[in-house]
Amino acid sequence: MSKASPEHSKFSRTLVTAALPYANGPLHLGHLAGAYLPADIYVRYLRLKGEDVVFICGSDEHGVAVTISAEKEHVSPQQIVDRYHAINKASFEKFGMSFDNYSRTTLPVHHQTGQEFFLELYRQDILVEKSEKQLYCEKDRMFLADRYVEGTCPVCGNSDARGDQCENCGTWLEQTQLINPKCKICGTTPVVRETKHWYLPLGRFQKELEDYVNSKKWKENVRGYVDSWLKEGLDDRAITRDLHWGIPVPLQGYENKVIYVWFEAVLGYISSTKELSQKRGDPSLWKKYWQDEATRYIAFIGKDNIVFHTLIFPAILMAWNKGGKSRYILPDAVPANEFLNFEGKKFSKSRGWGIDLQDFIDIFPPDTLRYALALNLPESRDSDFYWKDFQARVNNELADTLGNFVNRTLQFIQRYYEGKVPPRGELNALDKWAVSQMEETPGRVAGQFENFKFRDGVVDAMSLARAANKYFNDSEPWKTRKDNPEQCATTVNICAQLTRSLAVILSPVIPFAAEEIWKMLRLEGTAAQSGWNTAAEMKVESGTEIGHLNILFTKIEDSTIEEQIKKTASGESAEQPAATQATAPIKAQISIDDFRKVDLRVAKVINCEKVPKSEKLLRIEVQVGEDKRQIVAGISKHYKPEDLIGKSVIIVANLAPAKLMGLESNGMLLAASTDDGKLAVLTTASDIDSGSIIR
Q1: Which of 359, 365, 355, 358 is nearest to 394 (CA)?
Q2: CB burial of residue 24 (10 Å; 0-12, 13-18, 19+)
Q3: Which tens digits make up the pLDDT trace of 286-333?
Q4: How far apart are CA 68 and CA 218, in angstroms?
Q5: 3-state DSSP call for residue 362?
Q6: H or E element: which one contains 232?
Q7: Which SS3 state, helix, strand or coil, does residue 658 take?
Q8: Distance between CA atoms of 300 and 219, rounded to whole angstroms?
């Protein structure tokens, strides 16, 4: 039997949100693995337990990315978001996402909510007005928001750096730091002018946020990311922008500005819940989920959204709560996932690398993708989706294990018992073992799901299917049918119970197949309504007449997968710039004497931390034999400090010292990098003493 965790049992209901996807392009598999599939599994599990839960999401439809997409296509921003909201909503539905409400941030209810929060913080004198220097295009007569400016990065020299960040080296930038900036609309050089904006002073909430974070038991990857931000100290953050597309700033003198998307998008969870309340005919229902301390709030996101949901959104809610009008609850858990890569590389729309959700489910049943992704969720580190692995999961596990057991059980009933489940007699040791597996598995799976360990939960659930197959094989009903009919009937009855149990515990993961099993068993209601704890009980009555039988999962042919691999490869080569289609050319030859000048050593990482005010640099302390030294490396976008501590890495030990961000670096870490920016620090394959020479 499943039991709620002590933290969970304190609450009367659960609010679940999944990050609002940007409505300027189609969803891909990485989005699903980051936030949406784990959220849906969790919500379906809670509903099976009979809990009061609402599942909220919607399209994020404001911001510069939308306006740039609109300008490229020579259409309005509204046309862009209308198109992709419809595409993504339909894709989610086909995939089986069970949102209670999927809203839009362009709706009036969201604009009202965004302006209401802005004005409340303004009324409390929390917001700070500042004059700042910003680039202005005299030709287009407009201030240029971050992504409307491109120039040369002052850190790495990348000539395609944006006005907010250089994607090549990961450095966060102020647009006025760019070298040779150009307006992305007309290509002219902008000038610097002063403009005014409102800021949220996050630093005022630092202590309150630290206390809040310290009160939660969050996943290690989430906590590590949050701690690094708090350690560096929180700065004021602008909440208005010089744009026309977005929520208008509701203050006189700010008519040509909008509320910055990072501030208002998270409020889309609240406005979406308000919309749900209106649809259900109870306008105040949303308050039960957002302003009642008996509600537990779980926010599912990808790691790129961690800071917004663990620090910024809570700070916004804390600021509102200071007004005393009403109090919003804060996220109780933020089970963020890392990134899912595709065939060993990052998803890249510009290079045609990856596959969109809408294209995938036009070819394969949604449950096959749900299952394969569930077993490959990047819960603690980045993971990869491979076509061959997907095929193996479907063929070996869904078809040969689960599908085979269900089919052979129901076929046996149909063939030898006139399609009716036979009665069971006294249980022998093997029968009791099978029943014990059925009774124990729901509790194990529930424990994993309660702790957001969905991969382990799915493994435990599928273990019951393997145990069921073993039971069928070891019981040999094809033999006992003739020499021990009572035992055969008992075996088949228990197999029918196992079939039902599998439908229940796998319903959150493969809901379409679960309902198909339910129909074949001709059970009342649906698998999704059956009740989680009933999976441990023998609920299929003797004499139950099974329905029409269908094959649950069809094996995927090699030719089908090869075709997808070929399409993926051709898609990349078609979009990828010629200069990056091949490995970088080998540099000019050097002599052995030149190589001998480089002193490569094994170094043990004894401490590592982020460099304050830098998004790129890590300060690494290493032990090289008897020598301790400090190395500063620009790898924080690829490694968290805790990932490196204790590792034996390879360094250039005789490199002349250099200063980075005021810190002296004595040596260089060696790493391998790919054309698409993926980086891996070189480590030793076995335990070699620090200081050892690399020859």
Answers
A1: 365
A2: buried
A3: 999 999 999 999 999 998 889 999 999 999 999 999 998 899 999 999
A4: 36
A5: coil
A6: helix 220-232
A7: strand
A8: 12
Rounded to 10 degrees, what is the CA torsion of 150, 154, 156, 157?
60
* pLDDT tens string 390-416: 999 999 999 999 999 999 999 999 999
Q: Which residue has the tokens 């290509």?
A: 187
Helix axes of 404-416 and 485-505: crossing angle, nearest 10 degrees: 140
Decide yes or no: CATH 3.40.640.10 for domain 125-248. no
Instruction: Enter the pTM of the model.
Output: 0.80
If you ran DSSP here, which 8-state letter would residue 348 be given? Answer: B
Q: How far is CA 85 from the centre of its chain?
A: 19
Maximum C-alpha span of the chain = 94
**Closest by Cα among 192, 185, 196 to 139:** 185
What dihedral angle (degrees, nearest 10) is formed by the CA atoms of 58, 62, 64, 65? 30
Q: Determine contact, residues 368/412, Cβ cutoff 8 Å.
A: no
Whole-number pLDDT of residue 584: 44
b/e map 382-398, b = 16+ CB within 10 Å: ebebbbeebbebbbebb
Look up residue 507 and give its amino acid.
S
- Give CA–CA dist 536/439, Å, rounded: 4
Residue 518: C-alpha distances to residues 263, 365, 397, 521, 528 (Å): 45, 18, 20, 5, 10
Please, are residues 337 and 33 in contact by the beta-carbon 8 Å criterion?
yes
Is residue 117 a contact partner of residue 250, using CB atoms and an 8 Å limit? no
State the Cα–Cα distance between residues 531 and 235, nearest whole angstrom: 48
Predicted pLDDT at 207: 97
- Of 10-24, 279-293, 416-430, 651-665, least confident by mean pLDDT is 651-665
As given in the structure block, the two tokens for residue 443 are: 């509790």
Is the domain defined by 367-536 classed in CATH 1.10.730.10? yes
Question: Measured between alpha carbons, how far is 433 from 583 in angstroms, rounded to an integer?
Answer: 56
Write the pLDDT tens digit of every residue in 224-250: 989 989 998 999 999 999 888 999 999
Q: Rounded to whole angstroms, how far apart are CA atoms 31 and 40?
A: 13
Which fold is adopted by the domain 592-681?
OB fold (Dihydrolipoamide Acetyltransferase, E2P) (2.40.50)
Looking at every residue in the chain, the average pLDDT score rounds to 90
> Which architecture does CATH list for 6-118+262-342?
3-Layer(aba) Sandwich (3.40)
At 578, is the pLDDT very low, low, confident or very high (cuts 50, 70, 90)? very low
pLDDT for position 593: 67
> Are domains 6-118+262-342 and 592-681 of this chain identical in fold?
no
Count of CA atoms in the C-beta half-sphere (13 A) of 454: 33
Amino acid at 152: T
Question: Average pLDDT for residues 495-503, to the nearest whole number?
Answer: 98
Asked whether the CA dihedral 320, 321, 327, 333 is positive or negative, the reply is positive
The domains of the chain are located at: 6-118+262-342, 125-248, 367-536, 592-681
What pLDDT shows up at residue 684? 83
Q: Per-residue pLDDT tens for 338-390? A: 999 998 888 766 566 778 999 999 999 999 999 999 999 999 889 999 999 99
